[in-house]
Design a protein that fits this description.
Helix 5 packs across helix 6 (about 115-135). This protein starts with a helix and ends with a helix. It is globular. Helix content is about 80%, strand content about 0%. It has a single domain (about 1-325), classed as ABC transporter involved in vitamin B12 uptake, BtuC, CATH 1.10.3470. The chain has about 325 residues and is mainly alpha-helical.
């Protein structure tokens, strides 16, 4: 009873904080009136045109992007941590987002900074990295620990390749790739995020359809096979969905680290049965990225930081804590 009450209070606190963040993100700033009457005019569409553009075209699209991308990263992390049965099993650690970066870097080098080419390049790069990890980690089945170790090795190799590629392309291409690699929500518009949202929602729907099989895999390969699950086929399908979610998010914003690592673990602690859930991970992921983006916008006066710098700074501390806790 006490545990359920604590979980309810935690969820209420998270929800209230999220609503406050939404309010401050949309309506606080020098370009928007702060009084209640002005905010009400913005809501009902009677404010002046400039303020309406600032709130509903610029800020709202960025807010929506943070929620959608954060949810995609949270679900992707939940998928991989469920597959490998290890809290370190996220796309950040196993190198799938580095593979997506490789795909975007090659796309920029070959075709220039074209949005949809970058999206396709990120998906192909992420899937190729996943396939390499899947192949090299296979030894009469897949061990979660082996997947993580092989993923770290593939990530290191791809990072070295990315650095070499950045040195061989033109200066303009290298600068474009460097700015993109920081991970940022700057310049997000409705025309960029809405098509990606449809793809993310499709992938989320597929992940939810396979949720039952994913939970059976958590019980062990032998148990899942005895219950009629095609282990290797299901694992590969779920892995491809998780990689695609990471790749789409990476293609839109650049690599944003540690949201997919932290969101499922926080969601598990908020769940009454201490289980990782896809919906809970999506909500926590959206909250984490929204919070990080708010910090990125307001940490420095007259300057907006890339949100990837904020997540990697905070996430690095969380990773150290997680490693120490798992070591104990």
């Amino acid at each position: 009873m006490i545990s359920n009450t604590g979980n309810l209070l935690s969820k209420t606190l998270v929800s209230a904080t999220a609503l406050i963040l939404v309010y401050f993100t949309l309506f606080i700033g020098d370009d928007v009136t702060h009084n209640l009457q002005g905010i009400w005019q913005l809501i009902i569409g009677e404010a002046d045109k400039y303020q309406s553009i600032v709130v509903w075209q610029w800020r709202a699209s960025r807010l929506f992007s943070a929620i959608i991308i954060g949810a995609a990263l949270g679900i992707s992390g939940a998928v991989f941590q469920s597959l490998v049965r290890n809290p370190l099993g996220s796309p950040d650690i196993t190198g799938f987002n580095v593979g997506a970066f490789t795909g975007v870097l090659i796309s920029i080098a070959l075709f220039g900074n074209l949005y949809w080419y970058s999206v396709v390049g990120a998906i192909i790069g992420g899937l190729c990295a996943a396939i390499l990890v899947y192949i090299f980690a296979y030894r009469d089945g897949h061990s979660g620990f082996r997947l993580i170790i092989v993923g770290i090795a593939i990530s290191a190799t791809l990072t070295a390749f990315n650095q070499w590629l950045s040195l061989t392309v033109s200066l303009e291409t290298a600068m474009t790739a460097a700015l993109w690699s920081a991970g940022s929500l700057n310049g997000m518009t409705w025309s960029r995020i809405l098509p990606a949202t449809l793809l993310i929602m499709l992938l989320v729907g597929l992940a939810c359809l396979l949720n039952t099989r994913m939970k059976l895999l958590e019980m062990g390969d032998d148990t899942a096979a005895a219950l009629g699950v095609s282990v290797n086929k299901t694992r590969l399908t779920i892995m491809l969905i998780g990689v695609s979610l990471t790749a789409v998010a990476t293609a839109i914003t650049g690599p944003i680290s540690f949201v997919s690592l932290a969101a499922p673990q926080i969601a598990r602690r908020l769940h009454p049965q201490k289980h990782i859930t896809l919906i809970g991970s999506a909500l926590v992921g959206a909250f984490l990225l929204l919070s990080a983006d708010f910090i990125a916008q307001h940490a420095w006066q007259n300057a907006t930081l890339p949100v990837g710098l904020v997540t990697i700074s905070l996430g690095g501390l969380y990773l150290v804590y997680l490693i120490i806790r798992e070591g104990k």
